[in-house]
């Protein structure tokens, strides 16, 4: 492995008229990495992916792929291949012709081409569909054909634009596992675009969270989930109880704050942290609050009243009203201890670990 | 027995209430009209083609002698061949000229696509006759082209080979039909999912390869319709050869007209018409198959 990343993007911007779809984005992606671009619809994920693929030219900034500046290179001159959101299977060709489309240019022998096509079809576990055309395939099969068609080219980077979003839940989860296994098998750098935070967390080595054409945070899934740098990122990646706090002391990397009910906490400052008016936002994930049963005791406890509940089968979500807090705390409990039996109005005690609390910038 | 009788009744009621029946009922006025005005004359023509005529009396005994004449008289054979070849040349030229225009409007028309299409159809606001006659003005002995070339010093005496031959017929027909060819090609180009073109580029196609391997095959239905829309009516075109074709540009329709008119041989005219229809259908079928094979070969 060399030090040079597979993809190096510097100061990349893309404007459509007055509108900045991508605003000064810089990032590097390592060779063999499974990298995801995560963000709400319209935040610029596809725009970024299309700039990497070479379908559009940036307004400003540079992209280097495998150490080679790609300015001025068209899609057919880049070592990248794309799996399109709608799969873009050629309707006038059958499955094998679709998969072999890019190989035609290489002028291989018929047998060699057939072998490579078969290898790619095996890789994506597509059963023999014979001479079937694109309009005779199911969604899952199309997705596999699109994947095989790109992989057969042995690209340095595989770009995937929401490849699973059109599939139903069950198939999507199956394909997620397959995609991850496939990436580890072929060792190609994957760049996945998704708006599904669970997908990004489950599949990726690293994730870039995007809002409004900018990258808000780029980190490993665990770091992102546990240490979101802004309120916005925390919110997008799952439930979060936000608590207002007063800053007492600031010492280099750490901040001491006073929080209603959770008391005095000394927390690490997130990157780019800026306090506003001596106040800061602290948060704790719902599953990091645990219901205490009977006479069980914990070092850190809070008492409250169940204000509302929602039953999800394996888990129950509770909103717990706590004296002194503006908003009820939301908590998630698995149902093996009897959380599903808690009724609205019940008095309960909650335990938490102070390490589970994080400090965030207040950006919304 | 009673049960047996009610089943068909119920079935027929069900049929009367079905979508199919409603559809038929809905189109029946137009359908009847079409049958009356299209099928009936054709049937009559076919009938006549098996009869014979002696001055003003029609002899209704079955005979094949009209077809014999239509197929084996050198004059008619030559006219059939010329009509077919002129219409083929016109169709090929028209489609070749229409495709780039349709392509440009569809891919680079931006927000002005409708304006472009409107501009394409503007010549059709004038009469067909005027358009044909205007070519006479352009191609004539003292026409626009000749005077222009003379004035520029490129030629010293008028070119006489411009008008009154089959080239003039081809030029005029291409101009008459090009907009009709642009529209179906444009529609089929519009229907192409742009991500398919990008997928091709992504898999290594140059711009030209993408045109040949993705755009062209996917717009084939439009090309075929354009081709047939131009070819079928031009085989039997009457006005254009009459006005700009001269002696060398005579086509089969003129012979048919003569037989129904001055020569007063309706059965022969009918046999010539039927033969034209059969030849055109056969040519159309072969062209469709030919296009398909061509596209399959470029994969
Ligand atoms: N060709 C275009 N012309 C104008 N605006 C565009 C174009 N493509 C994308 N946009 C805009 O850029 C923003 C980002 O789009 P996109 O990258 O597709 O978002 P995402 O993939 O994250 O949902 C959107 O607001 C979209 O409307
Ligand atoms: Mg998108």
TrEMBL record, chain A:
GO terms for biological process: putrescine transport. PROSITE patterns: ABC_TRANSPORTER_1, ABC_TRANSPORTER_2. Transmembrane segments: none annotated. GO terms for cellular component: ATP-binding cassette (ABC) transporter complex. Belongs to the ABC transporter superfamily. Residues 7-237 form the ABC transporter domain. Keywords: ATP-binding, Nucleotide-binding, Transport. It comes from the Bacteria. This is ABC-type Fe3+/spermidine/putrescine transport system ATPase subunit. GO terms for molecular function: ATP binding; ATP hydrolysis activity; transmembrane transporter activity. It holds the Pfam family ABC_tran. InterPro entries: AAA+_ATPase (IPR003593), ABC_SmlMolc_Importer (IPR050093), ABC_transporter-like_ATP-bd (IPR003439), ABC_transporter-like_CS (IPR017871), Mo/tungstate-bd_C_term_dom (IPR008995), P-loop_NTPase (IPR027417), Transp-assoc_OB_typ2 (IPR013611).
UniProtKB/TrEMBL annotation, chain B:
One of its GO terms (biological process) is transmembrane transport. Residues 80-287 form the ABC transmembrane type-1 domain. The chain crosses the membrane at residues 23-51, 79-103, 115-133, 168-189, 210-232, 270-295. Keywords: Cell membrane, Membrane, Transmembrane, Transmembrane helix, Transport. One of its GO terms (cellular component) is plasma membrane. It comes from the Bacteria. It is found in: Cell membrane. It holds the Pfam family BPD_transp_1. The keyword Membrane applies. It is a multi-pass membrane protein. Belongs to the binding-protein-dependent transport system permease family. CysTW subfamily. PANTHER family: INNER MEMBRANE ABC TRANSPORTER PERMEASE PROTEIN YDCU-RELATED, INNER MEMBRANE ABC TRANSPORTER PERMEASE PROTEIN YDCU-RELATED-RELATED. This is ABC-type spermidine/putrescine transport system permease subunit I. The lineage of its organism: Bacteria, Pseudomonadati, Pseudomonadota, Alphaproteobacteria, Hyphomicrobiales.
